[in-house]
Amino acid sequence: MTDIEIRHFHMFGAIGGGAKGFNKARPRAGGLVGKMRCIGSVDVDAAACHDFRNIVGVGATVLDLFDREQYTAFHGKPPPADWREATPQDIQRAAGGERPHIVFLSAPCKGFSGLLSETKSKTAKYQALNRLTLRGVWLMLEAWADDPPELVLFENVPRLATRGRALLDQITAMLRSYGYATAETTHDCGEIGGLAQSRKRFLLVARHLEKVPPFLYEP
């Protein structure tokens, strides 16, 4: 068997549950075995980034991905004087200057969740939080525009496909403009993970057409 390294990076990586799952994966195809390696994460929560290092064994970068307008709308006040907008170069540095084969994004979902009323979800605060999803995808795509990741996995709450349809269409259009084909699907973490509960999730899968010409198949 021949080991093939597969590098993965995480936007909105939180405490590292997704990254740990990636690291445990052992994909096989013929005589090839995928050896997963996490190259980093970004998240605005410093405590979560600390936990990420402990859980995954790789450093995570504390980074606010809001633009200035989104920050002001969400917090109700302008950012402090020493605050600056994140750039694609910040994302590159967070990955240690390496290029990932897979990027996993699980952006804040409060604005799309059914636990939040329709009226409240339309307020400036939560609309800014929703737009953070689009900005995160853009920062990632620009960070590696000259050598794109082969796969992008975007997970969120199922209601994103309805309440966030307009935003999702923008994300899909952006991915396609960078050379990706996309597919939308859903899964139940309870069924996949054998949990004692049902936890349905939305999943957008994007493959770079030049680098991954074959269709992706679910096991």
Jot down its keywords:
8 helices, eight-stranded mixed beta sheet, globular, alpha/beta, 219 residues, 25% strand, single chain
Range of helix content? 25-40%
Q: What is the string of SSEs from the N terminus onward?
A: EHEEHEHHEHHEHEHE
How would you name the oligomeric state of the polypeptide chains in this document?
single chain
Q: What is the terminal separation in angstroms?
A: 21 Å
Largest sheet: 8 strands, mixed
| Gyration radius from CA atoms, angstroms | 17 Å
**Shape, per Cα inertia axes:** globular
The whole-number mean of residue pLDDT values reads 89
Q: Strand portion, in percent?
A: 15-25%
State the helix count. 8
Q: In short, what is this structure?
A:
The chain has helices at residues 17-24, 46-56, 68-75, 88-94, 118-121, 124-143, 165-177, 189-193, and strands at residues 2-11, 28-29, 32-43, 61-62, 102-105, 151-156, 180-188, 200-208. The chain has 219 residues and is α/β, with parallel strands linked by helices. Strand 2 and strand 3 (32-43) form a beta hairpin.
